[in-house]
Design brief:
Order of helices and strands: HHEEEEEEHEEEEEEEEEHEEEEE
Shape: globular
Oligomer: single chain
Radius of gyration: 21 Å
Number of strands: 20
Number of helices: 4
Structural class: alpha+beta
CATH architecture of the largest domain: Sandwich
């Protein structure tokens, strides 16, 4: 259960990172591994009681903190995909937050795998037909691309977003994402991505991941919700509260039959009137709001 000492999260030699970050990464990885090994409560039930092995999958700088992605799986009698979680570690090596991403999943029997293969072959034939159609349920905001299905909500236009969470010791932490100071506002779009055809899809969610277009043809890129989130000392204002806020802004892998959901934020002018939303990361999917 040791952190990799010579490789960075992207597989490049650790020596290419500046010395300060390299030292911080090593401290954070050791702290994160020790923490998850000691506290297995989030895994729940039988999994928390099994003998588990842990490994560092990715380490990245997040402001003054370091975020470590940990993989965990049963040490014996298991042949499947490891579970994953994010651990946020401060500059002193103390754990700030913990986010469980997925749980270990056993491999399917060969019969089910064969059936899944046939389903994928059928999907390859059917998807080009479905690209121009909405979901059979009739939801006009649910669309298909080459490999992904997507649902994007009508944009909420707000002055700012405030949301909260809990630290590991149960203390409340509040954040705000303020709109720009030029009378513009924030457009919040709820995005759900579903991988129903591929074994896995790598998606990088950044300023190039999507475009929001208004009725005049002006295009707007999403803002970095990580950099724009600021800690709040006071309570959350009810008119700006997003109790289930999950900002989409990172590289992820969506495996077969899995989905990811969260929110993208855009800065828009006061007279903004949305026409369409286009997803561009790993696939091209478009939703029209005036169709």
């Amino acid at each position: 259960m040791e952190a990799p000492a010579n490789m960075d999260s992207d597989g490049s030699p650790r020596g290419e990172i500046n010395p300060a970050d390299r030292a911080a990464f090593e401290v954070a990885e050791v702290a994160a591994l020790a923490f998850v090994d000691e506290d297995r409560t989030p895994y729940g039930g039988p999994m928390a009681k099994r003998e588990l092995s842990f490994e560092v999958l990715e380490t990245q700088r997040l402001g003054a903190d370091v975020r470590v992605r940990i993989g965990y799986r049963p040490s014996k009698g298991f042949s499947g995909r490891a579970g994953e979680e994010w651990i946020l570690v401060d500059g002193d090596g103390a754990i700030r937050t913990r986010e469980l991403i997925s749980r270990p999943k056993e491999n399917q029997p060969w019969v089910l795998i064969a059936l899944a293969t046939l389903s994928v072959i059928a999907a390859v034939v059917l998807v080009p037909v479905l690209i121009s159609r909405s979901d059979p349920s009739g939801d006009p905001l649910y669309r298909a691309g080459r490999t992904l299905w997507m649902r994007a909500s009508q944009p909420d236009i707000v002055d700012e977003v405030q949301y909260g969470g809990l630290t590991l010791d149960g203390n409340a932490v509040n954040f705000r994402i303020a709109g720009p100071a030029n009378d513009w506002q924030l457009a919040v779009i709820h995005v759900s991505l579903f991988n129903q055809t591929s074994q896995q899809v790598s998606v990088t969610i950044d300023e190039n991941a999507a475009v929001l277009t208004d009725v005049d043809g002006e295009e707007y890129a999403p803002i970095n919700v990580v950099e724009r989130s600021q800690g709040m000392s006071g309570s959350i204002d009810s008119q700006y509260r997003y109790p289930d806020f999950i900002g989409l802004w990172r590289s992820i892998v969506i495996r077969g039959a899995e989905s990811v959901a969260g929110m993208l934020l855009f800065e828009v002018p006061p007279d903004f009137d949305a026409d369409r939303f286009t997803w561009r990361a790993s696939d091209t999917i478009q939703v029209g709001f005036n169709d």
